[in-house]
Specification:
1 helix; two-stranded antiparallel sheet; 2 strands
């Protein structure tokens, strides 16, 4: 499947898709969410299936603690 939201138009399948930070499912298609932040060692990010998984995530960002 060509990911329609990818600027690179990469082929993304369930095996190569990022995993949801809340439920662990492959994150594909529309409705997904990504949280990105700057950490000491560089950039961190977590992918989520949808808004519900995003809300259920145990926020690990330093400012959220």
């Amino acid at each position: 499947m060509v990911d329609p939201t990818s600027d690179l138009e990469e082929d993304v399948n369930e095996e190569s898709a990022p995993r949801c930070g809340a439920c662990g499912a492959p994150v594909l298609g529309f409705g997904r969410r990504t949280v990105t932040w700057v950490a000491d060692d560089g950039i961190e990010h977590r992918h989520f299936c949808n808004d519900e998984c995003r809300r259920d995530w145990n926020d690990e960002r330093p400012a959220a603690r």
